[in-house]
Design a protein that fits this description.
two-stranded parallel ribbon; 11 helices; alpha/beta; binds 2'deoxy-thymidine-5'-diphospho-alpha-D-glucose; 13 strands; binds nicotinamide-adenine-dinucleotide
Length: 338
């Protein structure tokens, strides 16, 4: 059952990693849909991420999701919003949590208030990290019923934003859905994140860095599978419902590190062990049965080696995209001992 047929979409954070991949995905699969991207262009946003999206389909607005007047004006011009904008990196949130509270909590509040005023369909992008972590030997995976138990300043602000969305649906009847996805990989991911950091380290002649004992597990999903899931939820999801997005991609960090090194022609142990992340979540794992059963979604990029090889190729072919940020990113990590 289709409950939303968007013709004009507001995409917050559409110049970041997942938001820009979603905009490209919509441009390819739904060329009739117009998109307005609202993005502050923080260190994580890059206008070049939107290169190639047809001009007639895209309006770009540089601005802050906490700017009430701007958000109100844009919300009045669309029939649905997909809210990706966030401060997204755990290590940054540990070093300086303030922007996380502002953007992730206050920004979501500002958008919800505007959606309430204008009756706009609202899809909120969240993370599996709101559920905390699982033990390595626990057979369980996260489901929509798992209690919230966030560990880091980042995940606690995402949990807070999810709670606002739930309350605005129940109290004010905002037509809202939430998705909580696992770790994404693919092109255009900021080089502070695990996979692109190691790829660009190797390309720049720096030894890759592995935190702690390297046994932490993440549940990897290709960013295009995240986009198709978000579209399914936006158009067919039930108001007030939460859907977990995952593609059965559990891998420990040591294995992913070895995969990257081997795929790039290096010895699988040619990396440095570095200081662990404080409060480092042990394992994430998603059970996406509800999304698959109720909305018929299936991932189509489940060959991790193939997706990783494509991702490595993208960073090799787009050195100009990451080169400027590399020194500053590594300096930031050096200060943290990571
Ligand atoms: P990102 O850091 O690559 O991009 C975030 C974007 O938001 C950037 O373009 C940035 O400029 C913009 N932004 C930040 N603050 C803003 C503000 N105040 N106003 C307007 N724009 C602002 O993040 P990402 O990895 O693409 O994550 C996108 C969303 O997906 C986030 O909500 C994140 O919590 C969620 N998520 C990420 C993952 C993952 O693996 N990366 C997994 C699950 C969920
Ligand atoms: O689970 C979804 C989350 O995935 C999203 O909500 C976050 O926005 C996204 O950043 C990601 O969070 P993680 O903290 O899991 O991702 P990150 O890429 O920072 O790290 C992945 C794992 O790799 C984690 O266990 C820490 C480890 N790591 C990370 C870096 C940057 C290393 O071992 N070395 C590194 O250099």
């Amino acid at each position: 059952m289709t409950i939303c047929e968007p013709t004009r979409l507001l995409v917050t954070g559409g110049a970041g990693f997942i938001g820009s991949n979603f905009v490209h995905w919509v441009a390819t699969h739904h060329p009739e849909v117009k998109m307005v991207v609202l993005d502050k262009l923080t260190y994580a946003g890059n206008l070049a991420n939107l290169d190639g999206v047809p001009e007639e389909q895209l309006t770009f607005v540089q601005g802050d999701i906490c700017d009430e007047a701007l958000v109100d004006e844009l919300m009045a011009s669309v029939d649905a919003v997909v809210h990706f904008a966030a401060e997204s990196h755990n290590d940054n949130s540990i070093a300086d949590p303030a922007p996380f509270v502002r953007t992730n909590v206050e920004g979501t509040f500002t958008l919800l208030e505007a959606a309430r005023r204008h009756g706009t369909r609202f899809h909120h992008i969240s993370t599996d990290e709101v559920y905390g972590d699982l033990a390595l030997d626990d057979p369980a995976r996260f489901t929509e019923e798992t209690p919230y138990h966030p560990s880091s300043p980042y995940s606690s602000t995402k949990a807070a934003s999810d709670m606002l969305v739930r309350a605005w649906h129940r109290t004010y009847g905002v037509n809202a859905t939430i998705s909580n996805c696992s770790n994404n990989y693919g092109p255009r991911q900021h080089i502070e994140k695990f996979i692109p950091r190691q790829i660009t380290n190797i390309l720049a002649g720096i030894r890759p860095k592995l935190y702690g004992d390297g046994l932490n597990v993440r549940d990897w999903i290709h960013v295009d599978d995240h986009s198709s899931a978000v579209w399914a939820i936006l158009t067919q999801g039930q108001a007030g419902e939460t859907y977990l997005i995952g593609a059965d991609g559990e891998r420990d960090n040591r294995t992913v590190m070895a995969d990257i090194l081997t795929a790039m022609g290096q010895e699988s142990d040619a990396f440095d062990w570095v200081r662990d992340r404080p409060g480092h979540d042990r394992r994430y794992a998603i059970d996406s049965t509800k999304l698959r059963r109720e909305l018929g979604w299936e991932p189509t990029h489940q060959d991790f080696s193939e997706g990783l090889a494509d991702t490595i190729r993208w960073y090799q072919e787009n050195e100009a995209w990451w080169q400027d940020a590399k020194a500053a990113t590594e300096q930031k990590y050096q200060k943290l001992g990571q």
